């Protein structure tokens, strides 16, 4: 059995060998705590719904990044006006003390403002303070990364470690990822069809009954149609790619890349936004969840709830990307085999 001293030395050696990964995980945790704390504070204070609160948390992280750039520019100005002494022990990539003080004062002012706005020091102020405290590490990360842009980012280090971990199981994980993409795309459309009231309106229009079983069947049918549409969409866009773009891009006799192009992704995203808004307009968003997006007039009403937005971004966006990439690669491989046989 190892003694406490030997165990501690063994732990120190392991930490030194894996310090880049541990550092990356620490910074990732700081990002997550800051995003979650700011978003939760915004939601608790009634600033907006879950999606808007998360967007606000992301905006604050982006502002911290801009602040780090401003600190670097101000530090260069300070060094130009007051050159550093040769005996200055400050690390060249370390965040200046005055920048940390200013950052802390801004956080305290925001926490006080939130507490005063609610008339009492509520949970929102505490959540904001916790997120802002974690943001100190985020600020240090951005400042250090700007001083050494060639250094790999924390997320790149984590991604490399995960790649090494999953490499032996990559075929299985790729299959699971594709299956989850199909489920997410189909399920998001089916969920929004039922949640927005579109399935009920369609059931009344075509069957004269709004029974729950009929609505579920129509919602599932919408999810199935989404998969079939995606397959047809790939056939059309890939045909356009091969006829109009590939002859100009691949002038040498080399096989085209199986990676999906960007323009079909952007067009697919626009189609998804139009589809979800149209379904919400037809169903008049009769679900009970709060409306995150609302346009209303005397003769026109268009709203989509938080659940609908999540279905759009997670299901149609992320799941649709996986399905598009799968169909695109399969179609490219089929075209290559046909070309070889010819």
Describe the structure.
The protein has 342 residues and is mostly helical. It has two domains: 127 residues; 168 residues, no CATH class. It is built from eleven helices and two strands. Strands 1-2 form a two-stranded antiparallel sheet. Strand 1 and strand 2 form a beta hairpin. The chain is globular.
Structural class: mainly alpha
Q: Could you give the order of strands across the largest sheet? A: 1-2
Supply the number of helical segments. 11
Global mean pLDDT: 82
The run of helices and strands is HHHHHHHHHHEEH
Bin the strand percentage: under 5%
Number of domain modules: 2
Low-confidence blocks of residues: 286-290
Question: What is the makeup of the main sheet?
Answer: 2 strands, antiparallel
Subunit organisation of the chains: single chain
| Rg over alpha carbons | 26 Å
Q: Which descriptors would you attach to this protein?
A:
342 residues; mainly alpha; two-stranded antiparallel sheet; 11 helices; 2 strands
Layout: helices, strands, pairs:
Elements: H1 4-17, H2 19-44, H3 50-81, H4 97-117, H5 123-147, H6 154-166, H7 170-195, H8 198-206, H9 212-249, H10 262-283, E1 291-296, E2 301-305, H11 306-341
Antiparallel strand pairs: 1-2
């Amino acid at each position: 059995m190892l003694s406490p001293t030997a165990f501690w030395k063994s732990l120190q050696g392991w930490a030194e060998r894996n310090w880049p990964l541990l550092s990356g995980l620490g910074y990732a945790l700081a990002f997550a705590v800051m995003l979650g704390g700011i978003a939760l504070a915004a939601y608790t204070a009634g600033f907006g719904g879950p999606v808007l609160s998360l967007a606000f948390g992301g905006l604050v992280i982006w502002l911290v990044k801009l602040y780090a750039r401003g600190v670097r520019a101000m530090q260069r100005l300070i060094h130009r006006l007051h050159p550093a002494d040769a005996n200055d022990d400050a690390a060249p990539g370390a965040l200046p003390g005055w920048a940390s003080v200013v950052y802390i004062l801004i956080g305290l002012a925001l926490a006080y403002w939130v507490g005063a706005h609610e008339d009492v020091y509520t949970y929102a102020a505490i959540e904001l303070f916790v997120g802002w405290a974690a943001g100190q590490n985020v600020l240090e990360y951005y400042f250090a990364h700007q001083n050494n842009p060639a250094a790999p980012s924390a997320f790149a280090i984590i991604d490399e470690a995960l790649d090494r971990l999953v490499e032996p199981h990559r075929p299985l994980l790729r299959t699971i990822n594709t299956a989850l993409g199909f489920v997410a795309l189909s399920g998001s459309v089916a969920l929004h069809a039922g949640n927005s009231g579109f399935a009920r309106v369609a059931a009344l229009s075509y069957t004269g009954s709004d029974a729950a079983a009929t609505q579920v069947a129509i919602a599932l049918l919408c999810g199935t149609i989404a998969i079939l549409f995606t397959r047809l969409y790939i056939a059309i866009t890939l045909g356009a790619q091969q006829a109009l773009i590939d002859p100009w891009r691949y002038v040498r006799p080399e096989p085209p890349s199986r990676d999906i192009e960007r323009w079909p992704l952007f067009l697919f995203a626009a189609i998804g936004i139009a589809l979800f808004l149209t379904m919400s307009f037809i169903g008049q968003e009769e679900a009970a969840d709060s409306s995150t997006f609302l346009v209303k007039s005397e003769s026109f009403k268009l709203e989509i709830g938080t659940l609908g937005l999540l279905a759009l971004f997670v299901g149609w966006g992320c799941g649709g990307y996986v399905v598009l990439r799968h169909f695109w690669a399969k179609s490219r491989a089929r075209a290559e085999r046909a070309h070889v046989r010819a």
